[in-house]
Design goal:
This protein has 142 residues and is mainly alpha-helical. Helix content is 68%, strand content 0%.
Length: 142
């Protein structure tokens, strides 16, 4: 029973990473010129986290949750400005599930979750141009 809570939190993080990978596909399609490569870097980071979480779920004895064929976006993304907003929103959502995983996990898994939370918060700042006091927690109040 002790693995149930971490497993559920890891599955939630995996589901969020699936959605982020999908969302970054939309961001990449709408962002236009991206000389800094932020959209590609975000996409690659979320793919790597997704793959790592699949292994973690299996290590915990679970069956990794599958990606959906499509995801509902939180708002229409017709242009570059909306794509930037979407990227920041994706990072906020991912940060929230990693905050949950930090609470549920122990030792190495907690450290990985904290690293993922930090990385998502840094990417969100890059997209938004500003930060929040407690990434992964402040967004829950919205």
């Amino acid at each position: 029973m002790a693995q149930q809570q971490p497993l559920a939190a890891v599955q939630a993080a995996l589901a969020a990473e699936h959605a982020a990978v999908y969302g970054y596909g939309v961001v990449g399609a709408r962002i236009g010129a991206d000389p800094a490569g932020r959209a590609t870097a975000g996409y690659d980071a979320h793919r790597a986290r997704r793959d790592s979480l699949r292994r973690t779920v299996a290590d915990l004895g679970g069956e990794p949750v599958a990606a959906s064929a499509a995801y509902t976006l939180p708002f229409p993304v017709p242009d570059r400005a909306a794509a930037i907003r979407l990227a920041a929103e994706l990072e906020d959502r991912v940060a929230g599930v990693y905050a949950d995983l930090v609470r549920a996990a122990t030792a190495g898994l907690r450290r990985e979750a904290a690293d993922a939370l930090r990385e998502a918060a840094v990417r969100a700042v890059g997209w938004r141009g500003g930060s929040v006091a407690f990434p992964g927690l402040a967004e829950r109040g919205r």
